[in-house]
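Batch job 17 of 40 flagged for manual review because the log was empty.
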Amino acid sequence: MENADAPIRYRVARELYNDGDAAKRIEPEFYKNPEVVKWLKLLKPDTPPQHRSMEHGSFNFCLENSLLKTTQLGLHAGMPAVRNAVRYYISKAGHLPGKPYRGRANDGVFIFGCNLLACAGFTDGAVIGFLRESLEEMYGFVQKGSYDIYCGETERAALKNLPAVYRERKIIKSSVVDAHGFCFPLIYDVVGLSGLYAHGDAETDKKIDAVIRYISTDEFHETVADGYGVLPPYHGRYHTMGWDPKYPGWSGVAGHIERCGAGRDASKLLFFAQYVVKYPRARQTKWFGELSDCLEKYRTDGGTYIFPAKWLDESRGYAVQGHHLSFGENRRKRNWAEIESTFYMQTLRKYIM
C-alpha cells in the first residue's frame, strides 16, 4: 500500500483488506493509471467488431486477452466503465443457439466468453445460465472418468483427407465429440468456473469438484495431448481442439521451473496457479504443495518476494499462456518486480491461509 501503483493498491484494499472505502479513495488515481486506460480501451470492441472473432485470438483486443488483463489490473463487473465496455459480449451471450452449450453450433468460442465474463464478476442471467448449462454438460462427460478419447489405428486409417500437418498428432474420436461436444475441460473453464461458487449450491460445487478432479490425475496428464489434439472432420474440415488445462510441471514443479529458466513457460505456470488455487481439490494436489515450496525460494530476508523479472514480462499473445501477467507496475520503478511478486504471493495466500 505504500510502494505500489494504483492497480495493486486498489486490489489490496478491495480484495485483501475488504475495505470498500479505501478502494473508493484509490479509484480516481486507478482510472488514470496508463495501463488501466490502455486496456479498458482495448476491452471495448468497435461497432461493428474490428475482427471476425472478438472472443478468441492472440490480439490484445480479443476478449480473452483484454478481459483477463483488465481483471488482472483490478477492473471488475461492478464498474460502469467495464460493463459499458463489454455490453457487446453480454448481448451476444443472450443470443447464443442454446443446447448443447458446448456443441459445434456455438463453435466452442463462447465457452471462452462466458467463463471470462464470470471471472470478471458478471452475474447476468445469460452468462450464468450458459455457465451452469456448460458445467452440466461437462459434468456428464467427466463423471464417467474416461480418458479414452483418441482414435486408435483402425479409426485413424478410416479418416479421409487428413492434412499432412496433422498426421503425427492425436485425433479425437468422432463418437466422443458426437456424444459430448467440446466437453473436455479447457483452461478457460479453470479461469471461470469458480465464478459459480458465489451463485451455486452444494450440487453445483460437487460438479465443479468433479471437473477439477478429472484434470488432477496422472492419467489425464499422461494421456491428453498438448491442446488436446485434432478434432474429427466437420463439414469436411479438420480443426485443432484448443487449450488443455494440464498443470504446468505436474510431474515435478522444481524441474519444470529449472527447465523454464526465465522463459514463458514459467509465466504460464504463474497464470495457471492464480486461478486453480480457487478450487479446494486443486489445493490438495501434490503439485500445489511443490509449487508453494518452489515459490518460497524467492522470499527475501525482509519477507517480500522477488521472482525473475521475465516471469512477469508483457508481450502480445494469449493471456492463458502467460503473456499478460503483470499487475501494471511502472517498469521504471527500481522495485517493481518485488512489488508484483509479493502481491502475486498474496493472491495465492488469500485462499490457503
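Reviewer: the log was empty due to a logging misconfiguration, but the result itself is present. The CA atoms of residues 29 and 347 lie 22 Å apart. Unflagging and moving on to job 18.
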